[in-house]
Amino acid sequence: MYAQKKYYKIVFLLTFVIFLFFSVNVLIKGEVYNRDFELSEITRLDSKWSYINDGELISLDFPFKINIKQNEVKSFYYIVGDEVNKYQNPSIRLYKYYADIIVKIDNKVAYTSVNQKESISNTKGLGYLVIDIPKKIGSKIEVSVIGTMNGDFTYNLEAPLLGDKESLYYDMLYNVPITIYLNVFILSVGLFIMIMGFIVRKIDRKNSFLNLGFFSFAFSTYMIISTRWFHGFFPNIYLGYVLEYTFLIILTWPPLILIIDEVDRWGKKFAIGVLIYEISLLWISYLSLYFFRIEFANFLPLIHIGLILSILSIGIAGISSYRDNNIIGIRLIKSFIPLSIGIMMDLLLYNIFEFNNFRTYFTEIGLVLFLVFQFYYVYGNYIKAIREKYRSEIYRKIAYNDQLTGVGSRAAFTKELLNIENNKTKLQDLWAVCVDLNDLKYYNDTFGHAMGDKMLLSLSIVLKSSLSKNDLLFRTGGDEFIIFLSGYGLNEIKNYHKSLEEIRKRYCQINNIEFSFAIGYSKFNSNKDKSFENTINRADAKMYQNKKEMKAKKH
Hints:
Elements: H1 2-29, E1 43-44, E2 49-53, E3 56-60, E4 64-69, E5 73-79, E6 90-97, E7 99-105, E8 108-112, E9 126-132, E10 140-147, E11 152-157, E12 161-164, H2 165-174, H3 178-200, H4 209-225, H5 228-233, H6 237-250, H7 253-262, H8 265-292, H9 300-324, H10 327-350, H11 362-400, H12 410-422, E13 430-437, H13 440-447, H14 449-465, E14 472-475, E15 480-486, H15 490-511, E16 517-523, H16 532-554
Antiparallel strand pairs: 1-12, 2-3, 2-5, 4-11, 5-10, 6-9, 6-12, 7-8, 7-10, 13-15, 13-16, 14-15
Helix pairs in contact: 3-4, 3-11, 4-6, 4-7, 4-11, 7-8, 8-9, 9-10, 10-11, 13-14, 14-15
């Protein structure tokens, strides 16, 4: 054992040395793989913009909010100054916010999202656009925003950014908010818990791990999708738009299912009602988008109502659990408390601050605490369940295995006989072979029970060595064994009897021991036997006949 541990230490040490060697080698010689461009400073074009409102040219600064009706067009102009000379290949980066965008450079269309057959949606979602512009002082950049939302919708317009294309993309990649790291961590935890859920399904098919894992996965996925970082790099902005609202709706489903599984009475009924509401809302929003082009964003108040109802469901489930003294339900509700507070804080702040310019982490913190508490409770319960399973497995082995010989016990024989009776197809070509150790009482009385046990064990070894894969052997009494054989003809069963006797002789010769057995066998006959017990009784009678014949030969 010590030598094995020493071997492992040597392997780990060599692995670390090799890793260190390659790391140093990359640091010294890896400069040739560095990127061949230098990142330039980015210029925020937040001033010197103008737009025409009712025939009047008005100057404005970004960011700002503006109300635009559906199909209404608002155009903004910027005259490029000498700031463009700082860049080798200048580009501008715009944020597309649930609207159609047309970008013109010197009155020529450089980009348009109008009539793009990218989706069935009017808005086509939101995302970043990076558009090349000429390196020319005095060029006119015209950005037209076309309203796509139903009714009068408020658009949050951000300041465009000017820089080299590489720098603009790198800025999106480098300035990753802390929420990305936090939610990637939560996503990883969710996947880990889901994997555990699939593992423990072998123990309990109705387990909490899958719901917990899916909840963590859905919640963190939604939070990642809703970030600007995701909008900048996801290739299909409409698909991102659909995923964002889909995950926002379904992320409450796993907690509701947990409540339905673990809580009784009003807590369960209310959770079922909320779950039906959430499922209906998802289908209605999909159908409305497809047939009537009513955007997901129009359903946001209803989605928020669903979140509030889910939190209310947690409160009702908590009251129900305390009344019923439901320990599992109480633990579940305690875990939900920090998450519910986090969601409510973010929902309140959503209506106080500008969502695009203000970011809180109450929900993520609440989710982490929820997962920690629940993982502690559920993990503890399943460790206990695993122990109970192995304990019951040991008890099962004790019950169904004969302690002396290791073959099937009387209980195992009774169970298998019941299975055979319930499955008549097993009776085809099935033989019952009854075997009885001769003179067991003589061995016990003359040499003691230790010698009798030795003879029984020897016979069981001989019988086990004669069996094929599908044959079954049971010890049904003190000196009685029963074998179930299938697929044998009459000649083959006689040959089996002969081979069994040859195995006994070889065993006795090798182990310097002597014992004998009586045997009887019979095949199930559907014309004679109402059940397989009739077959066994017939084989047992033949075995006793064989025993009498063997005793007669002795005398």
